[in-house]
Amino acid sequence: MTIIRGKLQVYLTSILIIVVSSIVFSMHSFQPVRLLAVLSEMVIIAVSLVAAYLLGNRDLHRGIPLGLILLSLSTYFDLLEALTGMNYFEFISVALLAVGFPVLLASSIYHIRERKKRISEFSAVLSNSLEGILLLDLSENILYPNKTACDLLGFGEEQLKMKKFSDFLSEEGKEKLREARSCLFSGKNLSAFEVELITSGESPIVAEISLVIGRNANENPDSIILTFKDVT
């Protein structure tokens, strides 16, 4: 948390320096067109730095926020050149642009490729798992079932996505699930438990179930990963 606050202070300080220096450099001219140009470039710089900060706290390639920072600095020096008429500011701006844009582009392409690779590997693991795996939202709606889950429950993927997991439970099973969820979200150790699952077949199956909390980028619970196997 301290690191994140420190990063925020750096970016906010950078934005403040840019704003103050731009105002100082533009004080000698009050032409509306010039002032509008200054304000528009200040907005671009501020947006780039805020985006770099927000993306820096996510699971992205480090080159993405770095590229944004370099592009914002390029815009800043371009602004200084426009305000002062000093050509070396334009040279610095072009140099930063020449470095920042390729860094941002290459990092974005690398991140997209790596993310696709991880998703592909994760999908392969889920598809080949011998256990049924269901991704549920916090209301127990089924968001994603793997192939084994479809086979065990006797429904297709799209059919399962229109159901809640509780649809496959008896009243006793629903009570066990409520108790398990209560333990899970209170931070207590949760052991696997057995329930009867109502399938599309003639008779139910006895399944051993395990639950894990899924979390978003801010570490807040946003889903439940449920795994089960037939122990009938």
UniProtKB/TrEMBL annotation:
Organism taxonomic ancestry: Bacteria, Thermotogati, Thermotogota, Thermotogae, Kosmotogales
InterPro entries cross-referenced by the UniProt entry: PAS, PAS-like_dom_sf
PAS domain boundaries: 118-188
Top-level taxon of origin: Bacteria
Keyword Membrane part of the UniProt annotation: yes
Pfam families from the UniProt entry: PAS_9
Keywords: Membrane, Transmembrane, Transmembrane helix
Membrane-traversing stretches: 12-30, 36-56, 63-79, 91-112
Name this protein carries in UniProt: PAS domain-containing protein
PROSITE patterns assigned to the protein according to its UniProt record, in alphabetical order: PAS
Span of the signal peptide: none
Organism: Mesotoga infera
